[in-house]
Write a structure and sequence with these properties.
Keywords: Amino-acid biosynthesis, Histidine biosynthesis, Hydrolase. One of its GO terms (molecular function) is histidinol-phosphatase activity. InterPro entries: Histidinol_P_phosphatase_HisJ, PHP_dom, Pol/histidinol_Pase-like. One of its GO terms (biological process) is L-histidine biosynthetic process. This protein has 304 residues and is an alpha/beta fold. The protein has one domain: TIM Barrel. It is built from 10 helices and 11 strands. It has a 7-stranded parallel β-sheet. Strand 5 and strand 6 form a beta hairpin. Helix 5 packs across helix 6 and helix 9 crosses helix 10. The radius of gyration is 18 Å and the shape is globular. The mean pLDDT is 94.
């Protein structure tokens, strides 16, 4: 298993398990060469998840990320001879103020990457449980099709504002829907918005993660679905690999099934972060110490 560009730990995430160091040690035991530590960022108090509201206020949640950042940098040095670690965060695009929160974070911390994600529609979490998903769907107009449209519109706003180096779980919206494995092409308006978003990501050079977390949650394909992978590949889009692990049991989980999706989509090349060898080789002026490198799929071992 080569790498992951998206991970969490119970030490710094209320809905995860295990310490950050235990997660890193597990990645090493599983033979990973690159592992990215990307904890959730602090959000406005009105956007706390239920487990956060019981334990935090806005200041303590911000301190939690600060504690994570310094522990992640410590681990990066401590295990440098065993694994390449990169440190960043998973962004939360929820409401107008999200942009300021993420911009302030980028100004405060020198991160190696961030994952641009959307977990909310109309400020309501769409991946937490079915009740919240249905609430968001009702606000959107009462159908899966309408809430999917609004999700991809919100994602487009995030992409335009942030141009994230890694686009997280592109089609997360399907997780709690009534038809999580339905083809997006059966909804022309939804598919049109997906194509728009993929065009934008390809144009600025963003990388779509192939996120295995959908598979442990009972879906048949990784995020994004194979039909989206095929389409982005045809646009010369780039892909990387992520487990979106929330504890040691999920590190590298279901990578073999992701490999099946890769094969079906005809993807022949994957990309991973690497230290930039000189200033001219970095991929984004915001992240001058890292770059992307390509590896042929045929040269990778993608198994659990």
């Amino acid at each position: 298993m080569p790498w992951s560009h998206h991970s969490h730990s119970g030490q710094f995430c209320g809905h995860a398990a295990n310490t950050l160091e235990e997660v890193v040690q597990t990645a090493i035991k599983k033979g990973m060469s690159i592992f990215c530590l990307t904890e959730h960022i602090a959000r406005a108090i009105e956007d706390f998840y239920p487990e956060e509201a019981k334990r935090h206020d806005q200041a303590s949640l911000a301190k939690l990320y600060d504690d994570f950042y310094h522990e992640a940098r410590r681990l990066q040095k401590a295990y440098a001879d065993q694994i390449i670690i990169f440190v960043g965060f998973e962004g939360e695009w929820i409401r107008e103020g999200s942009l300021t929160i993420i911009q302030d974070l980028l100004a405060t911390y020198r991160v190696d990457l961030f994952v641009g994600s959307v977990h909310h529609v109309h400020t309501i979490p769409i991946d937490y449980d079915h009740d919240m998903y249905y609430k968001a769907r009702d606000v959107a107009g009462g159908t899966d099709e309408r809430v999917f449209e609004d999700y991809f519109d919100s994602q487009y706003d995030m992409l335009q504002a942030l141009k994230p180096p890694v686009v997280g779980h592109f089609d997360l919206i399907r997780l709690k829907s009534d038809q999580p494995d339905r083809s997006f092409k059966t909804w022309p308006n939804v598919w049109k918005k997906i194509l728009r978003n993929l065009d934008f990501v390809a144009a600025y050079g963003g990388v779509l993660e192939l996120n295995s977390s959908s598979l442990r949650k009972g879906m048949k394909e990784c995020y994004p679905q194979v039909e989206i992978m095929e389409t982005f590949h045809a646009k010369s889009g780039r892909f990387t690999l992520s487990d979106d692990s929330h504890g040691v049991d999920q590190v590298g989980l279901n990578y073999g099934k992701v490999a099946d999706c890769v094969k079906r989509a005809g993807v022949t090349e994957m990309w991973h972060l690497a230290p930039a060898t000189d200033v001219s080789s970095h991929f984004d002026k915001r992240f001058p110490t890292v770059t992307w490198r390509s590896v042929a799929v045929a040269d990778q071992t993608m198994s659990d």
